[in-house]
Specification:
Nuclear Transport Factor 2, Chain: A, four-stranded antiparallel beta sheet, 4 helices, 29% strand
Length: 154
Amino acid sequence: MTSTCFCGSTLPFDECCGNIISGKRTAVTALELMKSRYSAYCVVAGDYLIATTHSSKRAQFDKASIEQWAKESQWKGLKIISTAKGSALDSQGEVAFQALYIDESKKSRVHYEHSLFVKEHNQWFYLSGKTIAINRNDDCPCGSGKKYKKCCGA
């Protein structure tokens, strides 16, 4: 695969998140893990999503359900809102992001989440995430120029 990576970088997928998902290398930062997990949804890599979830939380995730949602969705883009800590020297990090997608009923959607990551034995893991509500009167994060309530929030 030579297309640009799903995470929004200008690198080809195979040289960016594809290397992490395939196990050729590990994510160095929490942000890198978050981007690779978004890309894993795009390529329906359920095993990777489960493996990069912290062991204390894995029982809460069902591979079949994850893969079904990933397959039924058309992933349209990733927007990083903010990061805190999560460098190669840190043991925990936070990433707030918006993932734009079209659901199985062909409606545009925005998944807005604040995620927590931890590093154990030099490997980053997704620990938890809190969905953030978008105000209905805010501009839609999809970039349409419309209010959220008249666009992806309709």
